[in-house]
## 1
Amino acid sequence: MIDGSSLLYAFYVLLFTGVCTWLIYYQYQIRKAMQLTEEALFPQKDQYEKVLTPYAWTEMRPLTKDAKSYKYYNWLTVVIVLLLIAMFYFVFIDKTIQGNVIVTSYLLLSMTNLIRLPASFYLIPNGLILNGFFYPWSKINSYEVERIVKWHSMYGLHEKINNGYCVRFQIKKRWLRPQPIVISDYETFHFINNYLIERGIIQKEAKVKKNEVV
């Protein structure tokens, strides 16, 4: 019969493996996305200010190794790994936190949610980059567009997004949808919209009021 201690050990091993696997996978995706941004058709140097990202709705920053956000991500990743190693020691060797493994693990998982780079959006010939992840066109199921006009739920959150265009993508075989991005002007949105249409990406009707749908 399996005792409680064995279950705690098994739980922590799964947690340790899962978090480490995620960190490696996310780091791989980020590095791959950084390389692919060199092929980006959009945005160019003078177009970053047209893309507003949640939740502060600030202008999008280039996805590069020199960015402060990337340096912060690397630093926080090191901290998480050190905490995992420390937990491993206290659970399996020192055995001082056996009874608090679940609570400690929950805190650790909460910290991993902080390991996120600011939202990003790039159009490249083979697909698009969303929030540091590359998706080939075959993985994009559809997208929705909403005009952020008065009475829209996002209207008034920030003056920069008022009257802008909220774009949400649906990725195949992914339950959680990526964060939306907002395009601030019609000319830029028109370019993006036409490019997605040319690539055969379906624009689905958003479930909002008629005057909010583009």
## 2
Amino acid sequence: MKRLPKNIFNLAFLLAAFILLALFAAGCTSYTKVSTDQLKNFQKQIRAEHAQLNSLQVRFSPASLQFTYSLKKEIDETERLDIFYKTKELLLSTQFQSEVIEGKFFKKYFTEERIYPQASISFQIQKEAESQATFHSSYYQTSDVSSEEARQLVDGYQTWSFWDYKNDPVTVPPRE
């Protein structure tokens, strides 16, 4: 039986390593941390009002804008809803839209297409890696925003769903 030259095995190894690296890189999403004076002031205010809040991290990727609250311990539904509605007000504020969405997100991603990210507000216990509950919204009325026509169907982060990872997601009513 004829032996294959060593360089063929080296080539095969390099090709396999390259494929694995490409798959790993494609599967990893990098996030950009968001920090503005408005967010710093909001975090101070919300932490003063809710003693169980440890911190707030705001970050975005090409497809999402995430608000993640770290909690000292579990909070009740009333407190969680109050934090959610205040965070939603922040997200919808003219200043946030101008500084973060226009000034940071669109400068980094989708400069031409201007595709808005999905938004989420999550709560997790400080010592646990997974979220305890998440509120989620889309800027658009449809999940397929590949066409200009679809991007004309705007909800503007008005409709939100809530998921506690135990029950099915439910629609969050507007604040009364």
## 3
Amino acid sequence: MNRIENERKQREEYNEREKQYKTLMKEKEESEEKMCEEMKREREEWEKQKLEEKTRREEEDEKRREKEQRVCDEFNQRLKQERERMEREKEDLQSKHEEEENKMKILMERLNREKEELMKKNVQERQNQDKERKRREEEFKRENEKHQTETQDEMRRERETFKHEKEEMRQETEKLKSTTVRWKISPGQSVLNDPCDFSAVVKVAVLRLLLTDF
């Protein structure tokens, strides 16, 4: 009895789920149909707007081309008039130019002659300046060589004189070294054994100072 009851309940549950599934599927189909219809309407609307936009752009393009053509025609007309005016002015200018060119030609010929004369004068002056500069350089060179020669001779004489004096001092020193100088020191008094040796001591001191300076 329980088994039959259970089977019955299972069939009822199954039927109920199946019914729910069918209902859900039906709703889904209806929703998809509505969506498709909506998309179709949107696409038709988009196509319509696209066509209208295309028509509008074509009309605008046509108007723009017509306007550009009018502007171009007006420009060409003004350009033609301007060219004619420029041609007339060109003829006038050509005549004036030829006249000015002749004047300029005469002026250039005169300037070229003056330029040649000036260049010749400058060349002559430059040559004279070069000669004067060379003369001064040679004179300075001779004076410099003379001064160097005199300076070298003077230095040579001074070296020889110094060498001679140094030799005399050396000989004097040798003589003084051979002389014995003795000092006798007592409280409050200094005396030399030989009074004649005092001049020798002075000479030695002077000689040492001279040698130190040199």
## 4
Amino acid sequence: MPRKPAAKPKPAASRAPEAPLRTQRKIHHLLASREFRGDFQYLLQHNPKTGFADGDNVLLTEKWDGTTVQATNRGFFKRLDTFGAGDPEKHEADEEQRYRLVPIDLEDAANAHIRRGAARYEEVFRRMEDGLCCYFEACADNIGARFSHLNWADIRVFDFAMNGEYLPFEDAIMKCEELDLPLVAYVDATLNIPDVVHRLEQGLEYTDVHAPLEGYVIRDTTEQGRIAKIRVNDLPKIYREPPQDE
């Protein structure tokens, strides 16, 4: 009797198509700026690109100094700047023009600094739903000088996107609670530029780590999605009106 051909193995169940993966958004500076007699200066005025105004209800979220990484249930990714250092055109480019995303392998020795903080959360990221992307800073004592006095490494989550659309920060808070991921600290505030600058002049530390605060990311508490940033290192560049002679 002729032998029956062997049954073909059933194909493995395919996963859902890859959801759109959006690079970390471009965040404009809170302050307006100008060139004056060859010097770059920030002004104690709102940058019109942010859409913010004094009196807005906002969240001041702590800006962490680390390596920015994105994670989905398919792996880790890092954005690369497509413009060279000092290229003036990069400031006018949108996020799609300025950045590209590349996958990264935490087992690669080149990513050991990221692995120190992120590896403990790998299983959490693998369990995330399809289409969800988590944005975080990988921070460690060997990433920049801010944490060099500590024997420490961790991550701080600052954003989530679903299918390429950013979630409101209130949803990011709930996602971090659900997934038990460390979120950047934040405080409610009524936006006022002199008040934000004064806060940063106080030499603040991070809420949960003894290291100097890098700055704030200012976030909308409405559905408008406005966002801006300001760093401690920007303060010396602020133009201040000279005192008037009496």
